[in-house]
Recover the amino acids of this structure.
């Protein structure tokens, strides 16, 4: 516990820890997302899948249901945290909910991220919340041949 403006409060990491086991899963994820947006430390990422949002969890579900190779989740590439990464296939997927990717600054930030990832040799595919929620089969059908062809090319090259 610490004091903030003379009021005793717990740290964000402690608050998240206290919520585990008593708050519904969706509420815990929402609290972690909010702390992440504010840049507050929350401690270890909950769960083994490393997702930070319902949208990310839904995309990972598409990969599992459609038997796509599982990507790395929320990993750093250069100065950016990439939502999903198939490192060997040089493919990055960014899942974009409108709430967090609207406005000029978000638009510009997404373009900077995409350009830097391209400079590092990664193809970047951006998926909207609607595509993930309403078109999971189409998403999988587009990704499957990309991942397969890049796996073979990478394997053949070295």
């Amino acid at each position: 516990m610490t004091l903030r403006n003379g009021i005793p409060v717990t740290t964000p990491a402690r608050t998240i820890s206290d919520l585990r086991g008593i708050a519904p899963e969706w509420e815990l994820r929402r609290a972690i997302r909010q702390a992440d947006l504010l840049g507050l430390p929350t401690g270890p990422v909950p769960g083994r899948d490393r997702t930070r949002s319902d949208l990310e969890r839904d995309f990972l579900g598409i990969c599992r249901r459609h038997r796509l190779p599982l990507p790395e989740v929320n990993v750093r590439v250069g100065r950016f945290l990439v939502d999903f990464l198939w490192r060997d296939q040089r493919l990055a997927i960014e899942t974009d909910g409108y709430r967090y990717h609207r406005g000029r600054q978000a638009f510009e930030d997404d373009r900077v991220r995409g350009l830097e990832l391209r400079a590092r040799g990664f193809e970047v595919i951006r998926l909207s919340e609607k595509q993930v929620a309403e078109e999971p089969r189409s998403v999988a059908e587009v990704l499957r041949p990309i991942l397969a062809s890049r796996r073979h090319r990478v394997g053949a090259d070295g």
User: Anything to note?
Assistant: The chain has a mean pLDDT of 83. The longest helix spans residues 136-157.
